[in-house]
Amino acid sequence: MSLRRSALAALALSLGCAHRAAAPPPADVAAYFPLAVGNEWTYADESPALRPNAPGVQRTVRIVARTADGYFRDTERGELRADGGCVHDRLRRLLCGPVAQGTRWSSVVSASSTERFEIASVGEEVLTPAGRFGGCVRVRAHNRANAATDYVIETTYAPGVGPVKLETFAVVDGVVQAQVRAVLRAYRISGR
Questions:
Q1: Within a 10 A sphere around the Cβ of 32, how many other Cβ atoms?
Q2: What's the whole-model pTM score?
Q3: What one-character DSSP code corresponds to residue 2?
Q4: Inter-residue contact 183 to 43 (CB < 8 Å)
Q5: Boundaries of domain holding 13
Q6: Closest C-alpha to 107, from 125, 122, 86
Q7: Structural domains in the chain (count)
Q8: Calpha distance 115→106 (Å, rounded)
Q9: Which of these, 149, 107, 109, 156, lies nearest to 128 by C-alpha position?
Q10: CATH number for the domain including 162?
Q11: Using one digit for the tens of pLDDT, what is the confidence trace for 150-188?
């Protein structure tokens, strides 16, 4: 699976912001990823690898079922649940509290791979084709591939909406290479 496809799939599991003073963030991490059957998000691929002026690929992710053990399954075969102070899939904790800059956690995804997460920013404002979202939380995940290469995923969550932006980077010998950029184009949340 290509890095681009993997990153877009990660967005299905999960998701330039300007910092602005805002109200305190919601304490419950579930507020940043509303999980309910029928909720859906459409993302536009704005990755740098796309040809200039080429129409970006769009992907819609919809929650289609709730499993017997409480996970919400989506159209990309992702499964998410919010409990124990975290929003998580079956392998990793994607967003954990307390919702404060610097909060850290890790997830062991295989015998040779540990992802390290950190809340990089709280209270950001993000502008996407779906609108302007305030009070956002940006989570940065690192996964070291080898001594010279680190993969970074930044997912920005808006309260009451979910992931509004996802960016991935490869850092090879200290040089940052942008890989994938996806932004929220449209969404439908139960009750809205």
A1: 30
A2: 0.84
A3: -
A4: yes
A5: 3-188
A6: 86
A7: 1
A8: 6
A9: 156
A10: 2.40.360
A11: 999 999 999 999 999 999 999 999 999 999 999 999 999
